[in-house]
Amino acid sequence: MAEKVKQGARFGEADYRQGARERIGEAYTLLCNEEFSGSVYLAGRGVESMLRAVVWKNDPDIQQGKKSLETGHDLRQLLTMVSNMGLLQDGGRDDEFTSNVQKVGRLWFNNLRFASSRFVQSWWRMNGEINNRRTLKKAAGDYYNACSMIIKRCEVLWQR
Amino acid sequence: MAALSRQQLQDVLTNRLNLIEPQFILERVGRKWSGNIISATFTGLKDEKRQRMLWDALEAAFGPESVHIVGTLLAYTPEEWEVNLVPTAGH
To answer: Distance between CA atoms of A71 and B1, rounded to whole angstroms?
Structure first.
């Protein structure tokens, strides 16, 4: 039964949007509890989900099932799709949006769902995100802010 | 507690946070209110701080029950929201 439901489930723009909003809310709760790996994972998942909502809403072929939203979990590819749709403003505001997606795309990947805090700490240290002066707590807070900003901007694009 | 009304939620946040000319775009998702709040009060504050303000106000008003009656609220400045949307009757 559950497998049939899974196979029959087809996400649409509203599902992606609502899921994204819930994930960023959960990420904040975990951040407050200093559960950093869960917070990082969920915030990044929220970004993916919200970018998907925007792409879905603006691509009639995806809406009509002529094309599937097969980007894997590559946030930078989703950003390219949003950009190619002409939804982003030149200069100013969306430069920050773009750089935030690139940052999150560098620090988040799908298999973080399996990652311990120790793994996240090592991964981010390798990426220069944390060091002897910059703690995981500080970096996770900044990362949350970047994810939240992306999701909020996508919400504005979604509302148009 | 009795079901939280949209107006109660708006009043609590407006009054406890002294929100400047707030605009609320709220929707009920299951038992919880979720949505977007636009106010110049949020200018210059990062989102982590904005969330802390919102949840501190909600917890002060509703206690531990707040997490069961309020979902995700995203806080915008007017510049961030950028579009003037009129909430529909369903919201």
So the answer is: 44
